[in-house]
Amino acid sequence: MFRSFNSPVKISRRVSSISSLLFSNSTPLLPQYDLPVTVSPSPAVFFSIFSLRSPPRSVYCQTRFASVMAGNSSNTVSSVHEFTVKDARGNELDLSSYKGKVLLIVNVASQCGLTNKNYTELSQLYEKYKEKDFEILAFPCNQFGGQEPGTNEQIVEFACTCFKAEYPIFDKVDVNGDNTAPVYKFLKSSKRGLLGEGIKWNFEKFLVDKEGIVVDRYAPTTSPLSFEKSIKKLLGLA
């Protein structure tokens, strides 16, 4: 059973004492408010806030967080060219070496139902535009049905032998999950798919302009030749 409060004076003194502790000038623990106290016949004591002397600490924290984030905005990655990746031999390659080139970045697999069509058309596009500042960057990935199980050496041999792939094939990476390659985190956040950021399957494609900015994203089932006009436009050939 609750103890009833019969003395407004005692309550007032208690509130005053608590307020002096919470709102001390030396270390304010809470924002300062005027807190008139209303005593009712019931055990409850209701506080009504009538004037705000300082912003709530939660507002201050939110404002401070926004300020810090704004201060870091200058460090935000804005281009594919800012990343370093590994080639099929494990050597690091700075993607800034592709500045001034239009890029088509693809996660590839050797045992997928989409392999034949995509690899064939990728080779056709590369043959037509490789001398006109166009480059294809292929990143093997084994996350979809385990359809890229081979070593880097086996993957490169397969692509070059079966499809005459002359474009660079890089080290095997994850494109989803906790171990997603940093360049793929950037690609996915730059251009979301119809169902969100995640890569849906093998042979999802990102078209990147000469400044390293992602301009379009194509589903795994989208034929590489179907957006040839977009590539030509970025190359200044349309």
UniProtKB/TrEMBL annotation:
Designated name of the protein: Glutathione peroxidase
Example of a GO MF term: peroxidase activity
Oxidoreductase in keyword set: yes
A GO BP annotation: response to oxidative stress
Oxidoreductase recorded as keyword: yes
Superkingdom: Eukaryota
Key words of the record: Oxidoreductase, Peroxidase
Record PANTHER family: GLUTATHIONE PEROXIDASE
InterPro entries reported in the protein's UniProt record: Glutathione_peroxidase, GPX_AS, GPX_CS, Thioredoxin-like_sf, Thioredoxin_domain
GO cellular component: cytosol
Pfam families: GSHPx (PF00255)
Thioredoxin domain boundaries: 74-236
Family as reported in the entry's similarity comment: Belongs to the glutathione peroxidase family.
